[in-house]
Specification:
CATH topology of the largest domain: Dna Topoisomerase Vi A Subunit, Chain: A, domain 2
Radius of gyration: 21 Å
Number of domains: 2
Distance between the termini: 58 Å
Shape: elongated
Helix content: 40-55%
CATH class of the largest domain: Alpha Beta
Strand order of the largest sheet: 4-3-5-6-7
Largest sheet: 5 strands, mixed
């Protein structure tokens, strides 16, 4: 059971942890403060377990040299799976998008993770995401179809258009997830049914 502490004005150590939690996506100052004081009330074991888990994450997780997904092995389990359709590659923005796609159990090809999307307003260009690695994979004639599964927002659409102009001249079929996904949707938040229909109903994409 969490031990009681005297919540006196925050010390430097407390403020530092609050500031670090505040940097995480979806966590504002109030949430960061609640998490910090929760950990302060918790036993030493819980705090150490959290610190160890974060340390292990940074030590053990790496990028797959094939698809750029996060994994503890290289190549990652999906790239190693001989039952996957190796002629089809689905391009997504983030590793969590792969989790969403896999949850549908519809797509059986491989992936390529860009780790971002082109966004000139935020200073993110083509050289800042994993496009060079993608083009290297597309050399040769083993890949027959590329599915553009970037998010359906301005950045995702811009990235899809840019990629289509690079890939179509290579003679590879380029498709885009069907418009069952509302504009502005991030792939990781789409429900399984909508995402499954978007995969199955993908359309040729000529840019």
């Amino acid at each position: 059971m969490p031990k009681e502490i005297n919540t006196t004005p925050a010390t430097g150590a407390i403020n530092r942890l609050i500031q670090e939690f505040s940097k995480l996506p979806g966590i504002g100052p109030k949430s960061a403060q609640r998490i910090t004081y929760y950990l302060l009330r918790s036993g030493q074991d819980q705090a150490v377990a959290l610190a160890d888990a974060i340390s292990l994450l940074k030590q053990e997780v790496k990028l797959c040299s094939v698809c750029c997904n996060v994994s503890e092995s290289d190549p990652c389990p999906i790239c190693q799976n001989v039952s996957r359709d190796r002629a089809m590659v689905c391009i997504v923005e983030q590793p969590q998008d792969v989790v969403a796609m896999e949850h549908t159990a519809v797509f059986r090809g491989l992936y390529h993770i860009l780790h971002g999307a082109i966004s000139p307003t935020e200073g993110v260009g083509a050289d800042n995401i994993r496009i060079k690695e993608l083009l290297a994979r597309l050399q040769g004639d083993s890949i027959k179809e590329v599915i553009l599964a970037t998010n359906t927002n301005m950045e995702g659409e811009q990235t899809a258009m840019y990629l289509s102009r690079l890939i179509i001249p290579l003679g590879i079929k380029v498709t885009r997830l069907a418009r069952g996904l509302p504009f502005g949707t991030e792939l990781e938040y789409a429900d399984d049914f909508t995402l499954s229909r978007a995969i199955e109903g993908r359309q040729d994409f000529s840019g």
